[in-house]
Amino acid sequence: MIQPVLAALLAFYGSFLSVGVPCLALHASAYGRELGAVPGSFGVCLDVGAAAAREGVPVEVAIAVAYRETRFRGGLVGGGGEIGVLQVKSRWWPEARRHPLRTGLRALKTCHAFGRQDALRKCRGRPACRRRILGTSGWRRAVAHYHGGIAPSWGYAERVWVVVEAAGQSGGRNPRSRE
Description:
The chain is built from eight helices and two strands; from the N terminus they run H-H-H-H-E-E-H-H-H-H.
């Protein structure tokens, strides 16, 4: 009787720690003052974090992109037809019309895979270069490709990465590194 209850509590707290803590950290940071004026931003932040955890995208990265794109306002439509809290282009991702959050996260994962392959291609077989690329997470590069397409937008990635750090994920890495 106690084991199922204990398992449920551990699952809840584990889920809260992985999703709720980054949202709390972001809202408690300097960015929180701005978010205080956005009704429901904490709930949307939790939704983005939970969906990111399900899709295999780092929670802090997804939260930072959502913050940078819309400040957690899901009803915005960009000038180029971008929709949802992650502002995914429905022209390239038609399923975004029905599932904008899930599609945006899948787009981030696709950019992660593309960015890593692109970086490895540029190594041209140099072992040290390959080790460096394979030894990093590559999510900063993914964010640059998410915004810039084939030509990565490093300025955008830098602005997002500042928010990633505010949400609690710097992992001791150099924030200026392109990995």
